[in-house]
Amino acid sequence: MATTDLRITSAMMDATLLDLPWDLPLDEWPEDTVVSLPKGISRHLVRFARLGGRVVAIKETTEEMATGEYRMLRRLQRLDVPCVEPVAVIAGRATVLGEPLPTALVTRHLRFSLPYRALYSSALKRSTAQRLVDALAGLLVRLHLVGFYWGDVSLSNTLFRRDAGAFAAYLVDAETGTIEAGGLSDGRREDDLEVARVNIAGELLDLAAGDRLDPSIDPVAVAGSIVEQYRELWHTLTSDELVPSTERWRINARLEHLNALGYDIEELSLSTGDGGTTVRIQPKVVDPGHHHRRLSSLTGIDAEENQARRMLNDLDQYVAHEREVRPAAGDDALANEWFEQVYLPIVQAVPRELAGKLEPPEVFHEVLEHRWYLSERERREVPLAEAATSYIETQLAHRRDEAALLGVPATVTMPIVPIETGAIDLSDEDDDPDWRDKV
């Protein structure tokens, strides 16, 4: 393949980019290059491909759109916003006959992530639908806090990863987004919120039309819940609070509540009023990832926020128990003990052939949940090692993992397996019409 006319923009140049068949339209790429993984609806053609030892997503679009989205994703990454990682922009593509081809945007595939359309068994359940919307509301708040206006908020433009019984949401399509230096006005935030409500309703109605939605779910009501969830979180994070000067304990209570939600306050303004009888609390900068950062600093574990919260609960219990026996033991030493004697034995107990099914922090969380279930059922305190063995044999072994799917040709349709066993729908949705094109 001739590559002399290609123009590659990348912050981490990878020579293997030149090995991909850029002289072919994306829909004609050979099966030994393309990887079949679940994907959401997109206005553009999207394919997954092998690039060295990893998997990337490739989207065909215009050079202007690809370059703008690449730069925006890099900027969002620097702001520590959950989004896919941009790899490169491939412009100047042409066939061997010299016919021009669309520019390609290359992003790294987010491991262990799924689009919303893959998170169902025979139908998307009410609890799952609500958790997806809640996760998207949290992502939208994080984006708005850094001044990002999305412009096309939807489940389709989001990827989801399991997060200790909930989901963590990642932005996957930023082509319509802008960052406003002075922050977003209330009007712009409300515009994004209304787009989200309408798009989510349309996406859920689309699932309902295909008998993929539990009949008990009201798509309009679930979509509307993002408004309430978003406004409640935004108010909690950014609003002023007046407290009587005699109740200053409420200042710490406010901080603890924000920490419980997973946020840190970089700066807090306090001012007195009414002759010193009241104190105004005004959080200046809200920084998400409180539990993630604390767990990482203590143990080095990189986990989602809810996973980190769950593991910190177990770590804190371990520290409290050990301190009764060894009062002089330091927090750092006990945290290291917990990592080596509690966490590592559990994740290392997973056989190599099952290692790709779930991320280690999610495995640990599910083992803790399984231990509680076994203890309740058997009316005894089940040891953690016993719970881990039971979990691996009865639960994890029956999940479908991402790694096992990498050799499946892109044209193959895999059967749908219930989400309780961790499965995903791999039916090729490139020809599935986008409901937004109908309105």
Task: Furnish the topology, listing elements before pairings.
Blueprint: E1 7-9, E2 34-35, E3 46-51, E4 54-61, H1 63-78, E5 85-91, E6 103-108, E7 113-114, H2 126-145, E8 148-149, E9 158-163, E10 166-171, E11 178-179, H3 186-209, H4 219-238, E12 241-244, H5 249-260, E13 263-273, E14 278-288, H6 290-299, H7 305-325, H8 331-348, H9 360-378, H10 384-394
Antiparallel strand pairs: 1-5, 2-3, 3-4, 4-6, 5-6, 7-9, 8-11, 9-10, 12-14, 13-14
In short:
The protein is of the alpha+beta class and 439 residues long.
Average of pLDDT: 81
The whole-angstrom Rg is 24 Å
Task: Give the helix tally.
Answer: 10
Note the run of SSEs as H and E.
EEEEHEEEHEEEEHHEHEEHHHHH
Q: Which structural category fits the helices and strands?
A: alpha+beta
Question: What is the number of beta strands?
Answer: 14
Question: Are there runs of 5+ residues with pLDDT below 50, and where?
Answer: 402-439
Terminal-residue CA separation: 42 Å
**How is the main sheet built?**
6 strands, antiparallel
Helical residue percent band: 25-40%
Order of strands across the biggest sheet? 1-5-6-4-3-2
